[in-house]
Amino acid sequence: MDITIKELEHLYSKGTPFERTALKDVDLSIKEGTFLTIIGHTGSGKSTLIQHLNGLLKPTAGSIEIGEFHIKSGEKEKRLKELRKHVGVVFQYPEHQLFEETIEKDIIFGPLNFGVSEEEAKKRAAELIELVGLDHSFLERSPFDLSGGQMRRVAIAGVLAMKPSILILDEPTAGLDPRGRKEIMELFYRLHQEEGLTTILVTHSMEDAARYSDRIVIMEKGTVALQGTPMEVFSDANALKALSLDIPETVQFIKRLEDRFNTTLPHSVFTLEETVEAAVSLLREEES
Amino acid sequence: MSDLISVQNVSFRYQEEQPYVLNDVSLTVEKGEWLAIVGHNGSGKSTLARHLNGLLQPEKGDILVEGYNSRDEKSIWEIRRRVGIVFQNPDNQFVGTSVRDDVAFGLENNGVPRVEMIERITESIKRVKMDEYVDQEPHRLSGGQKQRVAIAGIVALRPSIVILDEATSMLDPAGRKEVLETMRELKEEEGMTVISITHDLEEAAKADRMIVMNKGEIIDEGLPATIFQKGEMLEEIGLDLPFPLQMHRALKERGYPLDSLTLSQEDLVDAIWTLQSKN
Hints:
Structural class of chain A: alpha/beta
CATH class of chain B: Alpha Beta
CATH superfamily of chain B: P-loop containing nucleotide triphosphate hydrolases
Strand content of chain B: 15-25%
Order of helices and strands of chain A: EEEHEEHEHHHEHEHEEHHHH
Order of helices and strands of chain B: EEEHEEHEHHHEHEHEEHHHH
CATH architecture of chain B: 3-Layer(aba) Sandwich
CATH topology of chain B: Rossmann fold
Helix content of chain B: 25-40%
Oligomer: heterodimer
Number of helices of chain A: 11
Radius of gyration of chain B: 21 Å
Number of strands of chain A: 10
Strand content of chain A: 15-25%
Distance between the termini of chain A: 52 Å
Helix content of chain A: 40-55%
């Protein structure tokens, strides 16, 4: 399902003295199968934006189309429940939303609510618990005896159990240690590719944005300040600086090498391996 | 420099018959230093932090803070006055309805006279550069601002040690910078001792000294520059090396060993330049 957002505006506490503009003039189109990353400072409107994509918030002006679903200010979309089947959201600190007695019950809660049979839901739980890096023995345990990182995996399994075609991730790795961060991001990326998902990631990590995204959107003061492919966005160093955002270290480093060696290197370099390759190419040149 | 804190052969577990979360841990903290304690989630570093101000009691061993033993009930308040902790979640440590009230809370609990209290509140809020926000409600602040108010609340009690227990891990990059800069100034200007518990090795690289924890034990201790020589050990226990060190290692593996260890991108580019000129 393609997503089209047109002139989206969201005012909090509209019509009261506390009225505050959270989003204005947001235009975005996201093609099915895209891995899109949204970056921006705290308060830039990222979280408000993604809450519109499964109908948790309604626009105060403008419209959102998700496949055949239309969300428009002033109009009621009656099929919100149907929409939420397709759009899975992993909120910040999803482990805070665990509540059931056993991990299995927690994972199947969503699917049962959406009319999936218990047998099918349990089958999904058994598959998913392994997919998120835990094993079967966990299913009968209480989610509250787990470590923070394990709890987060269970919560993620609960979202995946709904088999969403659009997956929204709101800072899914915040607070995890580096190994945990890498494992969770690799899991989402694998799912994105294998299941052909549309993935929308909200993050502060420029490295993750560079590594996984097809497109990057930068939000500032409630609107889209910059968007494009990682290469387009990260090559605009001045624009990023003006938004006081960091450039990924690999990109910074390539730039420094270019300056020092007075040469040009490929600009689509975002992983460590590729950066090493670029540095080696400089060293090798001299040898030959 | 003299020992402010001395941890002597401390072992601890949350429940009997469960594995030890801290296993025979000994260390000292010197006055005026910035000590980074690194390790992955579950390595025991936060449990250790909670021992340093008497929130937890060791099962075996002793903890002395300026001579006060945390096992001695009468010492607990002396210890808590000396050791303040900034916790991970900025939303879980606010008690007041305004920045001013929040900073006042700890002072009231410690029975500081009103006139002195007002003075200390003003001074400590200024210290963390939150004076424009004294009457603000906490929920209107950013994460970094909340953590700075938490620091002000601690500073107002005039402690000798501030522990940052992953205090920046839930913040965005700007908030992280704010908090670390505030602490660095406090250390430089007031001689505060800082213990930073973190899994961010880039943050640890700027410390005076580093302790590496894994599975409840201290596995290494020393200057950051020395410990970073052992990149593989750090990666094995699940930590991410800073980018220049990762590059350094990868280049060595490809047959391009650089002379010295480089902690900054500038140094790394220089080292590559030097290597190329030699060829």
